[in-house]
Amino acid sequence: MTSRLPRLVEWLVLWLVPSDRAVTVLADLEADYLAARQRGRASWWLARETGSLVAAYAASRIGRLFAAAPLWRRDVQLVLRDLRRGPLAALAATAMLAVGLFGVLLAVALSETLLLRQVSSIHGSHLRRIVAVTPESRLASRFSYIEWQGIRDRVADAGELAGVYLQPVVLRAANTDLQTMAEIVDGRYLALTGTAMTIGRGLLAADDRPGAPPVVVIAEPLWRRQFGASPGILGTVVRLNGAAYTVVGVANSLGSSTFLGASVDAWVPVAHADALVDRDWKTSIDKRWFTLFVLPRSGAAAVEARLAGARADLASIDAVTWRDRRLQLGDGSAVSGSQRTTVIMVVAVLGALALLVLASAASNVAGVLLARAAASRRAAAIHLSIGSGRAAIVRR
Amino acid sequence: MAGPLGEFEVLMLLAVLRLAGAASPPAVRAEIERRAARPVQRGAIYVTLDRLEQKGLITAKVERDAGAAGRPRRVYRVSAKGLRALRRALAAVERMRAGLEPLLKEP
């Protein structure tokens, strides 16, 4: 039968309504639907009417299932009666299961928050990572400074681009050397990621220009640990790998990084990264260290179109690398590419295992309750056989 | 003998009776909504008609729509058993109502 109803509606009706009635139910629904379409708002009407049919027939099916299985019903009644008499054990078991289920949900939520968190707290999934896809479908998310500039020239009018590079440094403050991690970032990076400042200011585009005074933003944990949370930190000079940087702000980021598992104590503009990285970092196309993020201005498609042009530009500079690679937008979370797939798989497997254990525990509890109910049935039968009245058995 | 009828079942049987040979589910629904002035869910109509049919209170026949599409439609009639059950239900209501007219009269 061909009908003018959506396939999903047809499928639901054919699945739920008994087969000898489904055709007429569908015919009625179709006739009313065509009338509703002429009146307008037919989608909403159809959703409501289908929902009503599905709910009514689903309830009817469940009811028939119970009616067809009186033993189940009797067992459920016995279990409920047993629970009313001695609810403590059952409540404890149910509470344990609820705690377990809550634990699983919490673990999944934490994984989602910690492992799959978006890099930007203000732009969320709108901030996208730029990745290169190799002919083997592997994702490469690191670019050299030269490649970054080439991509920026193409993408600048379609989105806001920022780069970041995680680098170990020696930070000298208050006559103490500290081995820590710094992020070398584009001047707009902290604004794009929505990093809030505890005191002072974040990095600005003006800080990331040649000739600008070298400045640094430090993380709040470092500020508290090394500087006693002194407001006088602003304007203080700290040394990174021996080079002097003036502290202009303290980031309220609890040392979180773009990169999973890294704890960052300082953010330095790219223009002043010479002291922190190899000398040829700006000129060597093989020094692929920077991770690039872009915030599209008017949709991802415009950026992706420009990325195709950027790839052609890069192929003219480094044909060996870029001949078969292409650029695309990836997820803007801390974990990306194959790492992200692995994390999702591990979380899914662990979650499934935990649910399996919980299901096993739940079936054990149900088994115990049914066994108690069966014992109760047996006891009732014995009482009846030795002449006990029904009222006495009910009171038992 | 079928068990006592619910209020909605009584309304359904009355609607099927009123519609005589044209009691298709949409018509029954429209009749109840018009006369009883209450909204009726599509699902409730079909499931209740199925239940009444299973109880033997109504009978069903599949007919072709007179329109160009010639759609199949299920048309219901109240059976003799259904008529007896309906009389009993209405009589019970009548007996319960008797003597309460002053209280039940619209102000």
List keywords for this structure.
heterodimer; A: 396 residues; alpha+beta; 12 helices; 11 strands; 18% strand; elongated; B: 107 residues; 13% strand
Strand content range of chain A: 15-25%
The helix/strand class of chain A is: alpha+beta
Overall pLDDT of chain B: 90
Helix proportion of residues of chain B, in percent? 40-55%
> Shape of chain B from CA axes?
globular
Number of helices, where a helix is a run of at least 4 consecutive DSSP H or I residues of chain A: 12
Order of helices and strands of chain B: HHHEEHH
Arrangement of strands in the largest sheet of chain B: 1-2
Mean pLDDT across every amino acid position of chain A? 82
Rg of chain B to the nearest angstrom? 16 Å
Give the termini distance of chain A in whole angstroms. Answer: 60 Å
Distance between the termini of chain B: 40 Å
State Rg of chain A: 33 Å
Helix content range of chain A: 40-55%
Helix and strand content put the structural class of chain B at alpha+beta
Tell me the strand order in the biggest sheet of chain A: 3-4-9-6-8-7
Uncertain stretches of chain A: none
Describe the fold and architecture:
The complex is a heterodimer of chains A (396) and B (107). By secondary structure, chain A is of the alpha+beta class. Chain A contains 12 helices and 11 strands. In chain A, strands 3-4-9-6-8-7 form a 6-stranded mixed beta barrel. In chain A, a hairpin with a 5-residue loop joins strand 1 and strand 2. In chain A, helix 1 packs parallel to helix 3, helix 2 runs antiparallel to helix 3 and helix 5 packs antiparallel against helix 11. The longest helix of chain A has 49 residues. With 107 residues, chain B is of the alpha+beta class. In chain B, strands 1-2 form a two-stranded antiparallel ribbon. In chain B, strand 1 and strand 2 form a beta hairpin. Chain B starts with 6 loop residues before the first helix and ends with a helix. The model of chain B has no long low-confidence stretch (mean pLDDT 90). Chains A and B meet through helix 2 and helix 3 of A and helix 3 and strand 2 of B.
